[in-house]
Design goal:
By secondary structure, the chain is of the alpha+beta class. It has one domain: Gcn5-related N-acetyltransferase (GNAT) (Aminopeptidase, 3-Layer(aba) Sandwich). The protein is 39% helix and 28% strand. Strands 1, 2, 3, 4, 5, 6, 7 and 8 form an 8-stranded mixed beta sheet that branches. Helix 1 packs across helix 3 and helix 4 packs antiparallel against helix 6. The longest helix has 16 residues. The two termini are 20 Å apart.
């Protein structure tokens, strides 16, 4: 039985757990999209090094450019995460970006993803960013439907990426007004 979900900022003690959840969520979300051999070769230790790098680049300092959140079940521990900060794509007009949002499939449909996106949007708004986007694999229809449910609009742009020799396409979802997004989240919760 699931406990109460709390969303909070990541701490150094969370990094090993977040790395394991990152790996599990990434595999779950991208099964059938990213080549299976590539997903199988991914290692939690590599994810942990990446999270340690992210954390040392300012997450504990103020004003941090990025913020990383975890969703923690009071009984099961960390079940998801999100990362947000300034947009990395200068050709698009959106100020902020969610770099990633992942929730374990067992917690899908329980408001965990909405809570992580709400925390990310709140962080961006406090940094005077009023719009945001995120990138998603075109084949990830479950995530795309979720973002559309929250009012995200697919921007008519595509980015080709190559993973393990396979060509994949990412598309951005955007929110012009983070205030409207937050209102939508509070109504759908």
């Amino acid at each position: 039985m699931a406990g109460i979900i709390n969303v909070r900022v990541i701490t150094p003690a969370d990094i090993p757990g977040v790395a394991g959840i990152n790996l599990r969520c990434y595999r779950e979300a991208n099964r059938g999209i990213i080549p299976a051999d590539y997903l199988a070769k991914m290692k939690a230790s590599s994810m942990q090094r990446e999270w340690e790098r992210k954390f040392t680049q300012g997450v504990s300092g103020e004003p941090a450019q990025e913020r990383h959140f975890v969703a923690e079940d009071s009984r099961a521990g960390i079940v998801g995460f999100a990362s947000a900060g300034p947009s990395r794509d200068a050709q698009l007009k959106y100020e902020g970006e969610i770099y990633g949002v992942y929730v374990l499939s067992d917690y899908s449909g329980r408001g965990t993803g909405r809570s992580l996106i709400a925390a990310s949007a709140d962080f961006l708004k406090r940094r005077r960013m009023n719009s945001m986007l995120l990138w998603v694999f075109e084949g990830n229809t479950k995530a795309r439907k979720f973002f559309e449910h929250l009012g995200g609009v697919s921007v008519k742009l595509k980015k080709d990426v190559s993973i393990d020799g396979e060509r994949l396409v990412e598309i951005p979802y955007a929110w012009e007004d983070l205030e409207a997004l937050q209102t939508n989240i509070s109504r759908s919760g």
